Amino acid sequence: MSFNELYGSNSFGEAVMRERLPKAIYKELKSVQAGEKDLGIEVAEVVANAMKDWAIEKGATHYTHWFQPMTGLTAEKHDSFISPTADGRAILEFSGKELTQGEPDASSFPSGGLRATFEARGYTAWDVTSPAFLSEEGSGGCKTLVIPTAFVGYHGEALDKKTPLLRSMQAISKSAMKVLKALGNQSSKRVITTVGPEQEYFLVDADYFSQRQDLILTGRTVFGALPPKGQELEDHYFGAIPERVSAFMNELNIELWKLGISAKTQHNEVAPNQFELAPIFGYSNVATDHNQLVMQTMRKVAKRHGLICLLHEKPFRGVNGSGKHNNWSMGTDDGMNLLEPGKTPEENLQFLVFVCAVLEAVDTYSPLLRLSAANTGNDHRLGANEAPPAIISVFLGDQLQAIFESIAAGKSVVSGSGQKLELGVTTLPKLPKDLTDRNRTSPFAFTGNKFEFRMVPSSESIAAPNFVLNTIVAEVLEKVAVKLDGAKDIKAAVKDLVTETWKNHARIVFNGNGYTEEWVKEAEKRGLPNLKSSVEAWPYFGKPESVALFEKHKILNKEEIHARLDIVLEKYSKQINIEAGVAFEMATREILPACASYAAELAGQAQVLSAVGASQGSIAKRAAEIAALVDQAYVKADSLMKAKLIAKDVAEALPQAQAFRDKVFVALEDLRAPIDALEKLMPKELWPMPTYEELLFGL
Fold first, then answer.
1. pLDDT at 334 over 60
2. Mean pLDDT across 694-698
């Protein structure tokens, strides 16, 4: 099969729709996708029949409505196309109603109190803008038609991650179009947000993984001493891809390309056995669906190669963890990128206006952006000199900053367009100099024609960061539209906007090294919040001003917000509770008995040597050192379990999460210290589980 035949072969995308749908139906569906019309049952019936025929021809027997509940994973219930007939036979049917709406049981998904256990009804609604696709599972090649959907409750409550994202895309389009019309744009009909999420991940050998209870149950190692060599030689980053990993990547790309997912870039990341995959940009909701599929496919394909894909933000302490860089931009339906600076950004009114809106939004609502990237794993990463700090700031680059400063000060702007990089070698071409450098220490960086939100956790859906980002920018754009609407001199109005924005929000701009302590102090002087933990950040979601914002733009109501807040807090507590239980079991059932036996063996050797008059001081000292650490670890293990039981008894979600953060997590780290010290004293063959050396260098 050629690449052209391969790419999108399992996706009911544009090419398939044009081929299989009548022209009138195809045109009608495109109008629905553009938000210009509602989906009629007649159109749905024709599309459903075409989907069914396409899927059956490719070997599918079932269909499923695929949705993204608040678990952070995806969910699906499969139904066959079979419909019995009166004569005892069966035909294959799929109706427009079955395409557009499903009804999975909603009672067992996290709802934060939105749905009682006995209130089981939940509805899935077809997302017409996200292509249906075929999933292939198992060696038998079982195929299912998968229909991306939103998931809501009986009374319309958003029970998933996608619904608020779709609402936010509509909100930002509405607000942005007001601004464009004020700027004189009469051609564009809607504004679309796009995302390109870079996905970082680790690969470990499946045999080693299966011997680590912590990796199996929590996705990270709760114990583990660093080997003599880690990442300090910088020899893994962008290095030659190992052969075994290359084979995995090749199959992964094929599986993704068949789904129409534009996997573009792959490379070794900073830490040993860490890698990255980056796709080409897509509409925010489609990119979110595709990223969920990327994570699922990574896990599935890795197992075929005897590997396990780890998506946890910090699976190994002491080496870099994983993030997900959320490259976000805005564009129009007729092809304009609203964040494209052009050759003379200082004269590009549209660019200046939309960058101003982003600056004000990020500064005003930075706690909301911070909490959108919060989870238990990210608490191990953020601010650890391997990922952006927990302080939200914006990197513009020296040239763009100079443009904004000059306009705000009423000074003439010197254009930097046309600059070339001199490479100092005559045989190499002169390269065009980008408008900005890249700043990997910045949480929110302008990178050419987009903003890169670098704080997003590697294991989570990108839906939350994007619906928050869309909403806060939509809110500012509403105000901008009022300021620009009817302006007699639009250039003067834009200059006033830039001046006002820079005066009030320049504090959010920082082009320096975000890893330094100096920046932490400077950020405090500027009044920028430093929300170091998820538990510290999440309560901002429920503040009255946040509720008012999301209700104003019809993204989430008060009940939906507080439900989500309860869900993330409960999940945080449950995850640390599981980690604490795993650490206790590994310590008391595997590690400490092995260490105690070895200490006793050493003590016996010392006695024998002493009986024959030989020196035994070093052996006796080592036995005593191990025995002391074993005793210390048992005490700390008991303390961990006491802290765990106390935290579990806390009734309310926020105080309980705070107890798990301040007491249980601290006790877990206290237990880790003697365990990791014991690993360095034990013979390798007696250590009861694979070490970091094997996990990180064992491919």
1. yes
2. 93
State the average pLDDT for the chain: 91
Tell me, what's the pLDDT at 415?
Answer: 55
Task: Quote the percentage of the chain above a pLDDT of 90.
Answer: 75
Distance (Å) of CA 571 to CA 34, 321, 373, 374, 547: 36, 21, 15, 12, 21
Helix (H) or strand (E) holding 502: helix 490-505
Q: Do 185 and 314 touch, CB atoms closer than 8 A?
A: no
Q: Which position has the token pair 């680059």?
A: 397
| Partners of residue 199 on adjacent β-strands | 277, 324
Which of 88-92, 441-445, 454-458, 497-501 has the least mean pLDDT?
Answer: 88-92
Alpha helices of 101-143 — where are they, by DSSP H?
none
pLDDT band for position 424 (cuts 50, 70, 90)? low
Q: Quick check: helix, strand or coil at residue 416?
A: coil
Cα 655 to Cα 357: distance, rounded to the nearest angstrom: 36
Residue-wise DSSP of 433-500: PPSS---TT-SEEE-SSSEEETT-BTTS-SHHHHHHHHHHHHHHHHHHHHHHTT-SSHHHHHHHHHHH
How many angstroms separate the CA atoms of 386 and 363, rounded?
Answer: 23
Predicted local confidence at residue 421, as pLDDT: 47
Provide DSSP, 663-693: IIHHHHHHHHHHHHHHHHHS-GGGSSS--HH
Position of tokens 């877990």?
668
Query: Which amino acid is located at 589 in the chain?
Result: R
Band of residue 423 on the pLDDT scale cut at 50, 70, 90 = very low
Provide the H-helix boundaries in 534-664: 534-537, 544-552, 558-585, 592-611, 617-648, 653-659
Gap between the Cα atoms of 11 and 293, Å rounded: 13
Beta bridge partners of 451: 328, 446
Question: Element (H or E) spanning 203, and its range?
Answer: strand 191-205
Radius of gyration of the chain (CA): 28
Q: CA torsion, points 481, 485, 490, 493, in degrees to nearest 10?
A: -60
Query: How far is residue 317 CA from its own chain's centroid?
Result: 20
Q: How far apart are CA 634 and CA 148, in angstroms?
A: 50
> Kind and range of the H or E element at 282?
strand 282-283
Neighbouring C-beta atoms of residue 304, cutoff 10 Å: 13
Q: Name the DSSP letter for residue 323.
A: B
**Does position 438 have pLDDT exceeding 80, yes or no?**
no
pTM for the structure as a whole: 0.93
First to last CA, the chain: 31
Model confidence at 626: pLDDT above 90: yes
